[in-house]
Amino acid sequence: MADIPFVYEFDFEYEVSQQISPMIRRVLAKNPSAFTFRGTGTYIVGQGHVAVIDPGPDDPEHIAALQQALAGETVTHILITHTHMDHSPASHSLKDVWQAPTYGYGPHGAGKLEQGVQVEEGGDMKFIPDHEVRHGDLIEGDGWTMECVYTPGHTSNHMCYALKQERCLFTGDHVMGWSTSIVSPPDGDMTDYMTSLKLLLERDDERYWPTHGTCIDNVDEYVHSFIDHRLQREHQILRCLDDGLQNIAEMVPVMYADTDKALYPAAARSVLAAMVRLVDTGQVRCDGVVSPDATYSLPA
Question: Does any domain span residue 117?
């Protein structure tokens, strides 16, 4: 597989405001897991009148830590990258405390709902942004400007935010420093994800701040490694089919031989996402509707 230069080590302390750049602070929620790494990093941008990015889970300790970190300051904007349960739920409590509006692409599954595709529940179904934003929109605050960068794929409503003053991009779960992103249909879409990765290569951001893990500085090299990784996963699927493996359940142990078996269900969802793209591009045939249990083959 592609050699992705992951960074696993970084200095942090749970539920404490840490200054990580001239304009950015981070408060790390104590919700570590196989999907959140050390936890959800809530970012605070500016001083005095600030923006908060991804308030995090609906956890009393984290909400209290954010309130303490911002005591005496005014929150003017709450920006949401997407509506998974470790990113947006705290906004429901905090917008009432701070009297601040929320910004995001739309409710959970908004990008797919626009296409007439119904997504499964499981995200933060309560979240409806006060302001819907679109690619290229600018959000301005006291001494800072954010550019909205629409990056569907991990979810259909995933939005990154570029801080103009520091030429950095808050990448949510689109690009992380510790792991690749899960792309799980129907809300997750591998074709969209690959397009969104390529979009980043057209930009001039110098640093990424993911919601999980530490910053990424070698941004172009890193994004290229993510693209190569996904293409190699597709090649693995084609090799599995050539070897006579015709369903996803058979492919996962082969493709993810070095992965904890507890993560196989998530891996199967990623294989399904890749399979959708391969079927869409005509590289693979499906016996019926593309699904986890379908039978797949190479074109004759």
Answer: yes
Do 189 and 240 lie in one domain? The reply is no
Sequence-separated (6 or more) residues with CB below 8 Å from residue 62: 15, 27, 29, 30, 31, 40, 42, 56, 90
- Encode burial over 92-111: b for 16+ CB neighbours within 10 A, e otherwise: ebbbeebebebbbbbbbbbb
Nearest residue to 38 (alpha-carbon basis) of 5, 65, 12:
12
H/E element, 172: strand 168-172
3-state secondary structure of 150: strand
Could you read off the pLDDT of 4-42 as tens digits, one per residue? Answer: 999 999 999 999 999 999 999 999 999 999 899 999 999
Give the domain extent around 282. 235-297
Contact 130, 101 (CB under 8 A): yes
pLDDT, tens only, 263-295: 899 899 989 999 999 999 999 999 999 999 999
Same domain for 71 and 159: yes
Residues recorded for the chain: 300
pTM of the entire predicted model: 0.94
